[in-house]
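Page 42, continued from yesterday. The earlier attempt failed because a stray header line got pasted into the input along with the sequence. Redoing it now with the clean sequence only.
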Amino acid sequence: MKYINKKLTIENISVENIAQKYGTPTYCYSYKKLKENIYNFKKNFKSFSPLICFAVKSNTNINLIKEIKKFGLGADVVSMGELMMAIKAGINPKKIVFSGVGKTKNEINYAIDKNILLINAESKSEIIEIDRIAKLKKRKVKIGIRLNPNTDAKTLNQISTGKKDNKFGVNEKTFFQLVNYCKNSNNLELKCLSVHIGSQILDHKPYQKMLSVIDKVIKKVNYKFEFIDLGGGMGISYNNDKKKLNYKKYNTTIKKFLKNHKSKIIFEPGRSIVGNTGALISKIIYIKKSEKKNFIILDAAMNDLMRPALYGAAHKTLPSTIVNKRSNKTYEFVGPICESTDKFATYKNFQKLKEKDLIVLCDVGAYGMSLSSNYNVRPKPVELLIKGSKIKVIRKRQSYKDLI
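This time it went through. Structure tokens are written below.
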């Protein structure tokens, strides 16, 4: 996004033109940014050619997944629905890994039937269940075991997944027991050691620590893993500080690790692929004045973008048109839902706004629409893919008729 003649544009189309044609609230994705993110990711890790499995949970738009598939990416899924969607989008089952702590019997059955690359198991009970189903099907099933490396990703507690008090993965002692269990099974083929330590990580050091733990565990267990699944969690900059993860340093750390372990690396990026491709266009319904601040009431709400309410996350907020006058009042951007947490951002010295102005919430491509809901019986927004001067509707706006 950039301003051209004081008008905010997404690729070659102004936000005002988009809103005029498609209404608000509206999700827009930049194809150019998507392509750039994928090429950048591949370039930074090309020395060992990882299998890149897009984390479907970050954005579940099937048309966007189809575009991602064209770049050769696989999929990381955490439910039967996501697995079905990845397959429907045309992703090769041999590039799909199935993660998650609570896979049901139906989900395991479906994954085995679709002959996906890996089911990454996260508990002894799950491995016993996979073993039982595989035996009934007279199949040998490829699995991974997710290790909890007790590594703090130094990110929000709500999105930490690699510490010992998180529900994910198994500890070192249990990991050794499960490796032995798999060795003695006629129905399981242990192929992968899997980890994932959290999300929105902007420092390579937690990854260094994680790889150090994996290195020690592999040496102790003395087992040859065909795959090492390092998960995802690579962060993006949500504000103006431009801080981002140093891929080069992370790449160097992995290359050192691979000198001792000849395995294929799997990544599960989501946010770093789609996060900064997305923008949510919203219109100001009312400006409600109070003593200390003005509430800028938008037609977008927490059901459309849950991250601020769920995590206290901040999204850069921009006006569609630049004006030179600044407000001396604090602006709090809020939605119309009957919850106090239905707010997006608070700014001092924001430019002066008026009712019916357009506002854009930035970097909403990951965990925006995928976390959206119909709370307060609100229809979900339309989703658009913008490619240069062309707009493609990749999911229609819900109607009240769809809901009621």
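Notes: The two ends are 36 Å apart (CA to CA).
Reminder to self: strip header lines before submitting.
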